[in-house]
Amino acid sequence: MTGPAVVALGGGHGLAASLEALKLVCDDITAVVTVADNGGSSGRLRDEFDVLPPGDLRMALAALCDDTEWGHTWRDVLQHRFPGDGPLGGHALGNLLITALWDLDRDPVAGLDLVGRLLNARGRVLPMAAVPLEITAQVEGLDPADRSRVQTLRGQVAVASTTGQVRSIALEPHDPPSAPATIEAVNAADWVILGPGSWFTSVMPHLLVPGLRDALHDTAARRLLTLNLEHSGETAGFSCARQVEALADHAPRMRLDVVLADPVAVDDVDELRAAAGRLGAEVVIAPVAQRGAPGHHDSLRLAAAYRDLFG
């Protein structure tokens, strides 16, 4: 198996789903992962050691593990989370391992490559930016006395769990440096995939890192946006078209080639096609959801959709 060179951008479970599908159709895979998490084990390590939050990077590495006993064993070790309320309680072992490697060598890419070798990973995992980031969001509807009032929320956890409607996001620092290897991967790709995942905290932050945003605009790669299966959480009440419009609002120069959506998730096909068309994209509707597990992508179905699109 060879296939195209693919860069997949995102974070958390959404990116992991995309990577598990991509492993079935191509060999040259690079995951570019958001580095704005400030909660749980990642947040604790970030605060204590002034490092990139390792959690989403760990999840991407685990998703790319070699499909052998060796790869699966080390994936499970990496994902093991210590129980209890002590100093180790809540930490994933992989987060500690990645942080230890960064303590020995401050180059984050070198440490991630070493963990990839341990897993015999079927690709490479790179950070979205070279420094930890903070997400801020303008959110409407949090004040019961004035639902039209817009307030500022700070931090990935607060934005991801808000009950209000997110209007826009920004990053601090506003102009973070990109890892050179990340830019090189995007420039060399045949396909770039955005999504699925938490729209405002995993998908769109990539478009706010100046160097990465420019690379996504300038690359000769075809650009694919994979939409979510449910409109909940950060995008509660959003249609598929509004998800696309929110992306366009944050990156006006961005152009897409394909928007991929599951038929169950599409509320208005014509509206979605109009929104995608404004970014230069065609809409492809294909069944990619897992049967009996609402909101979850099926790796085999998603792989089939990717394979057909890659041609």
Core attributes:
311 residues, alpha/beta, seven-stranded parallel sheet, three-stranded antiparallel sheet, 10 strands, cytoplasm, CofD-like_dom_sf, Putative gluconeogenesis factor, Gluconeogen_factor
In short:
The protein is an alpha/beta fold.
Give a verbal description of the structure.
This protein is an alpha/beta fold and 311 residues long. Helix content is 40%, strand content 17%. The chain contains 13 helices and 10 strands. A 7-stranded parallel sheet has the order 3-2-1-7-8-9-10, with helices on both faces. A 3-stranded antiparallel sheet has the order 5-4-6. Helix 12 links the parallel strand 9 and strand 10. The mean pLDDT is 95.
